[in-house]
Amino acid sequence: MPPDTVIAFAYHQILVVIAGSVCLFGTWVGMRHFARARATEGTTRYGWLFMASVGTGAALWASTFISILALDPSLNSAFEPFATGAVLIVAVVACLVGFEIGSRHFTLAPELGGLVMGSGILVMHVIALKGWHITGTVQWNVYGVVMTFVLGLGLSALAVNRANRPVTRWCRHGAAIVLAFMICAMHYAMTASTTLFPDPSATLATYLIPAHTVGIAVVAAVLLVMGSGFSTYVIDLRSRTESANRIHQLSFNDTMTGLPNRIAFNERLAFDTADAHEKAHKLAAFSIDVDGFKDINDVFGHSAGDLLLIEVADRMRRTIGPGEFLARQSGDEFLGLQVSGNHPHDAHGFAFKIAQVFAQPFTVQGQPVRLSASIGYSIFPTDTPERDQLLSNAKLAMHRAKSKQRGSICMYSREMDDTARARRALARDLQTAAERGELSLHYQLQTSLADGKICGAEALMRWQHPKRGMISPAEFIPLAEETGAIVLLGEWAMRTACRDAAEGKIPGTVAVNLSPVQFSREDLAETIHAILLDTGLSPRRLEVEVTESTIMSDQTRGLHILRKLKAMGISVAMDDFGTGYSSLATLHAFPFDKIKLDQSFVKRLPGDAAAAAIVRTVLALGASLGIPVLAEGIETEAQWQFLAGEGCAKGQGYLFARPVGLAQLPAAIDAAARFVRNDTAEFTDAAAPAVAAA
Ligand code: C2E
Ligand code: MG
Ligand code: MG
């Protein structure tokens, strides 16, 4: 190689390195801004997107010109002013559109954004080359040009993909490196596809900008990019420090435990999620709930409970390390955050550390007390990219932990906790179902088994959900019990059933189910009394159905309320007998008016010897205590015959009537009466059935 060529070659390499470096630094700054755009919302997001586009666009603009100049640095060349400006506009707009699409959430959004950017970069090259005038001629190789296009599109898609789907904290830098590499690769592809034929006799038009002026403009652009990038970095850092200070000030707001409060937690969560998003690391949120704390308050009083919570908070605070945060939500609920590495063990470690706090007993009024906490956690962004969702995930996991053994730790699991989420949504709907008129009562007739006379009807609640259709009480009653909504629903059912009965629409006694939760209200008897007065129904025509768990949960209170009801003249039936404790003590503790034998035994009659034996025992028990038995769930004539033969007084089941709405009740009464009249003769001498007098 002659010495002149060697110098030109070295000069050419230096320009390529400069083009790559300009692109690297400019896009690195741009990617920082892009990461901030992804972590923010609304107008702030567009502000960051604009900054990212100007930074990256200017860097691409500069590097495009340098890489063109590097094709032959010794050549006398110049650029058209219009093309030079147009290239800058195309660069910024392509980056803006590319980043905007790239930061959206649909599948392949980053890759599509990258393709838009890549296309922009190619257009920039085409315009820049079109506006490049040399003293000589340029010849292009078609394959080389195609190669350049493919490289441009592919690598820019990869760059935005890396920036938007970070798996490590290095991905952000990876995106800048890929773009810089793209500029260099495109340059070499272009070099390989061009042949320059210098013509010293040719002259350049005077309106063109000489290459060295463009070179100076490029240097100025690089400085501008660096300067603006650095200053926004400083401003951003400062405002973040300010918000960190604000969090610090808000931090000590829970006066009792001295821990940060809920507001401080929310601020910290917003800050940490944005940071985690930007730096592509993980963040775990924890919901910590002390088990059985209500009992402590009940037994030792509230001030002792407060002292205990202070001790719990103190112990937990001592375990907190760097990157970890603890707050008090309310009562005995605490919240935690951990800026973690990428390993799920980090989060479990934190939860375990908190659980260990409870390993040593606490002292309340000189007595050792053992406590535990149920802990749930969820990881950002693995479980959810939404910060509000993160905490609600952690809470769902905590509730699952609570339903397990005391002191359990549960990690959020989409399959398991989404069911709980759906249940909660349903529970919310249930709160207002009565107001929206979605609830109704169905009535199922009860008959005397010996003579087939209709003696009453049980009121059964129905819920017509606007989206899900008819929902079974077996599903929504437990839900209403969990949330306490059953108190209002139960009152509504009682009022509706009493009104229907008082208006003469229901034959005989109307039976209404009462939930154990309704017994937690001291005023249950008074409420029912008021309903009877309002509707004008005689207490003799009302029967309440309770299960054994009603009495078991708080025996003294339960029995006290039942006695009040009985004193008013209301009869009380024991529902679902045989499924719970079925204890003699319960039957002894209170003079029930009826035992309702659970349908699970009736279903197996008459073939199943064990079921038959149990049924006989219950019937004998009822006879010895003087309490009539009603068999639930009679579906076949064989079951009816067996029960009637064994002396069971009453029955209820699909054989006689299904639960129906009030409008269909007269038809159901007719059908049941007709059915019994045709059938009774087969095994009883009883007269034709009739509706029992009220
Ligand atoms: P439950 O009080 O034992 O009511 C009897 C259930 O057995 C009703 O189910 C009834 O439709 C069903 N059933 C009646 N005869 C037959 C039969 O021959 N075969 C079969 N397979 N099933 C029969 P439903 O209406 O789905 O109610 C389920 C449970 O929901 C009730 O059991 C009761 O515990 C609760 N529930 C219903 N309404 C209310 C209410 O207003 N308040 C409260 N607290 N609980 C209610
Ligand atoms: Mg019942
Ligand atoms: Mg029952």
SSE arrangement:
Blueprint: H1 3-39, H2 42-69, E1 77-79, H3 81-102, H4 109-130, E2 132-134, E3 136-140, H5 142-164, H6 171-193, E4 194-198, E5 209-210, H7 211-251, H8 262-279, E6 282-290, H9 293-300, H10 302-319, E7 324-330, E8 333-340, H11 344-356, E9 362-364, E10 367-369, E11 373-380, H12 387-403, E12 409-411, H13 414-431, E13 439-448, E14 454-465, E15 469-471, H14 473-483, H15 486-502, E16 509-513, H16 524-535, E17 542-546, H17 548-553, H18 555-567, E18 571-577, H19 584-589, E19 594-597, H20 599-602, H21 609-625, E20 629-632, H22 637-645, E21 650-652, E22 660-661, H23 665-680
Parallel strand pairs: 11-12, 14-16, 16-17, 17-18, 18-19, 19-20, 20-21
Antiparallel strand pairs: 1-2, 1-5, 3-4, 6-8, 6-11, 7-8, 9-10, 13-14, 13-21, 13-22, 14-15
What would the CATH topology of the largest domain be?
Answer: TIM Barrel
Please give the largest β-sheet: 8 strands, mixed, barrel
Reported CATH architecture of the largest domain = Alpha-Beta Barrel
Q: How many domains? A: 3
Using only C-alpha atoms, the radius of gyration works out to 40 Å
Describe the fold and architecture.
The protein is an alpha/beta fold and 694 residues long. The chain folds into 3 domains: 12-198 and 219-241, no CATH class; 262-412, Reverse transcriptase/Diguanylate cyclase domain (Alpha-Beta Plaits); 425-693, EAL domain (TIM Barrel). Helices cover 57% and strands 16% of the residues. It is built from 23 helices and 22 strands. It has an 8-stranded mixed beta barrel with strand order 13-14-16-17-18-19-20-21, surrounded by 5 helices. Strands 7-8-6-11-12 form a 5-stranded mixed β-sheet, with helices on both faces. Helix 2 (42-69) crosses helix 3 and helix 13 (414-431) crosses helix 14. Mean pLDDT is 85; it is low at 681-694. One magnesium ion binds next to strand 18.
